[in-house]
Every structure is written in structure tokens, then in C-alpha cells.
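Late entry, evening session. Most of the bench is empty. Finally got around to the prediction I had been postponing all week. Sequence below, unchanged from the version circulated by S.P.
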Amino acid sequence: MKKILIIMELLRDSLIVMKKYIFLPLFIFSINGCLSYKIKHASSLGPEDLLIRGNIAVGAERLTKTELKNEISLLVYALRHAYSGRDYIKSSIFENTVQNLERLNKKNINLTSIICREIAGILYAIPDEHLTVSLPNGTSCSYSKKRISRIGDNITLNQALPWKIEKRLVKKSTVVIIGIRSFPAPTSMLWKGFTESLKEILTSADSLIIDLRGNSGGDDRKAYELAHLLFGGEFPLPYDALIRNFSAANYALMANNAMVRLQNNFRNNEELDPTLLHEYLRNLNNIDKAVHNLLPVVEFDRKRELALDMHLDPLNFIFDVKNGFSKPIFILFDRECGSSGEILIDLLEYHPFAKRYGQPSSGTIHFGNAFPLILPYSKIKITIGQVFRKYRDGRFIERQGILPQVYIPDGIEGIDFIINQQD
């Protein structure tokens, strides 16, 4: 590990000075010599075995029996040590899934494409829509059902930005519509002007429609920021806890996430942000710290840009009428709305002026912050959630979705329906 860190730090220093990763080919493709995968017995696997080795876009089309056995052992290790949802699904489901994965070793299969589908079929028994499986070329092997919106498209359709704010005059009332079709990182330039425009336009709004149709998610920090604005300050959450296991295995997958982004950026000939390499190095270092119990055990993840008290009691919560948005809020969503899109719906659950319209969301909500495990020979990618959201009332809605309070039938345009309801 020290050898790896020395190599990484030297590369990082050079790259920061030059502002471009001109040494990235060496970093990505030659690092395989430092991290060559050695076949191990399942009982001797450790967190460093989860780290990406070599080019993630090039995998073997066929596996030997020994290679398949080792990939399955590595996947089982990751599920047991890095998967945050392990303790929050039925133990019988989890253990049966592990046994079925191990039975793959007895099957007469060697094609990577078939192995990918077999793994995906077995993992589908775990009710987690973030637990996905794909081939090195990005082709999905997962069994998730395709969801189709039948209540119209998000107003951001065909727009360059993932958001759009517009104002409509309905009779004598001003209706402001915020369309958000995805949640890029809050530092992304794609959000430039969003908060300022929203604050300005809300001052003249008589009602607000939040259009989340087709929003499959992203980084939920902007959702928290928007909810904070509409509440006018701190607000109660429907979650009892955001549970995360900060194990060494978790940090290995977090390092993988940075490595995947580095490789993809290099492959697309894009200028890279040196903070990606810093993120990779930091998580490598955290693997060692976690192994030696030098990191605190954290159950409640409160590391948000905004200070939010997860235990703010909704029963005793008093809405800030002066600073919050105290006019009708219509949250519009459909079957394609998931993950961070659903989180925004949840964040407004206790807003006294908010009401849900549309159709049940996708149910991609309990598990989140999914980071990649890249199997060493086939390069099959499995995304494994690092966070589990536990609701106060004990509900479990994965693959079921959040229900609207007002259902909009198929074939009816959602925004038109809401506006007509106000007449």
C-alpha cells in the first residue's frame, strides 16, 4: 500500500502543476503492475482485493472455472463487507442469494455475457434497485422493469440544462413551475443561476409546481438545498436514520468510484479535475485507517452542506411562515422518477403546503450512494449501495415507490391536470 501511495502522490503533484493528466495513461494502464490480481482463497480476501485493476473497458469474453470461482468469491465478499443493506433485508433472502451465487461455480458457463445475466438474475432477489449489473461496454444485465411515463414529459425535455424555471399566468394567479430532470453534483456548472433565479421568481408566485417526471436521480445535495429553501430553514425528515457502514471495504469501493471517473474522462479525452485523483488517494488511505480502527464508526450520516437534524420531531415541528414558502406546492412525479428525485419528494413530506400528484414513483429509494465493484477478469460491474435509508414509520417501499395523494390517469398531461384542479 505504501508503494501505491508514493506512486499516486508523485503523479498527483505533477498533474496539479500541469493542470492536465498527461501521465494518466501510465497511471491507469500501468498501475496494473502494482495491483496485479492474485488468486486467493475466499477466506483470505481483504478490502484491497476490491480495488480496480487495469482498464475497466476491456474484459475477458470467456472465463476459466478458476476465474469464475474467484470472481464469485470476490462478489460475495463485497456483499458481506461493503453492502449497507445487508442488515436491513431479510437474512434468508441475503443468504439464499449468496448460496445461489456460489452455485454458479457448478454451472457449465464461461461466456462473460451469460455470466453477467446469471449474476443479475440472482441479485434481483434482493429488493434493491441500486444493485445493478452491467458488462464492460455499459450494457445492462439487470432485470429491472422498464418504466414508461404516461402523464407527459418533464418541461426540461430537449433543454441543455437539467432544470428549467418558468412562470404561467392562470386567470389572475401566477404559477411557477420548476422542472428538474436530474441532479448533477451541486458544484456542477449546470446549476449556474438556479438558486438565484428560483429565489427571485418565488417572490411573485401564488403557487409552485415541482416537475420531477423522468427524474432518475443523481446527487441529492441539491434536493436538500431546495427543501431547505422551501421550508425556510431546518425541517424534519421522514427518515429515522441514514445508515452507513464505514468499513475498509466501503472505502475500497469509494476509491473505485474515483478510478472509474478517471478512466472514463481519459477515454473521452476530457480535461480532468485533479480532485478526482485526490479522492482516490484519500480513500486508499482510509482503507488502511479503517483496517486499523483509526476511523470513527458512524451510524448517522449528517455530512451535508446544510446542517440538518435528522431527529427533528415532525409532531412538534413549527413551520416558519415568515421565511418558508407558504403557498400551495404541487409535487408532480411519475413511474420514471427515482433515487434523488424520490428523496426530494420525501424531504417535502412534512411541508404543510405540499401535496403529491402523479403516479407511483420507481421505488429506488432505500439504498443509495452506489459505488462500483469491477470483477477482475470479466470486468463485469456491480454497483453496491453504501447507504440505507430507514423510515421513521418502518415502511419499506423499494420497487413499490412513493404514492401520490392525487393520482393522475394515463394519457393526461400532468401539469395541465394540476392547473385545471386549481380552477
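Two things to note before I forget:
The first helix runs from residue 2 to 18.
The chain is about 35% helix and 15% strand.
Will write this up properly tomorrow.
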